[in-house]
Amino acid sequence: MNIEGYVTAEEGAELLGIQRRSLYLYVRRADGFPQPVTIGRSLLFERAALVAWRATHPARKRTKGETP
Predict the structure, then answer these.
(1) pLDDT at 68 over 60
(2) 38: region left, alpha or beta (phi > 0 left; psi from -120 to 50 alpha)
(3) What is the DSSP letter of 20?
(4) Is residue 20 a contact partner of residue 28, using CB atoms and an 8 Å limit?
(5) pTM reported for the whole predicted model
């Protein structure tokens, strides 16, 4: 498998602007969230699929006093 165009969970979380643990929750619970492929012990996400998902699911606005 050619892994060009794929990102690690850490990179995917950064791309989406979320924490890595949130990314794993989305994988398990969010309908339509891009599913990773397993290469060895690593989960890889298709970068284009994450970008497309973010385009249809904008980040929520933070409220005053909320920490990232």
Answers:
(1) no
(2) beta
(3) H
(4) no
(5) 0.81
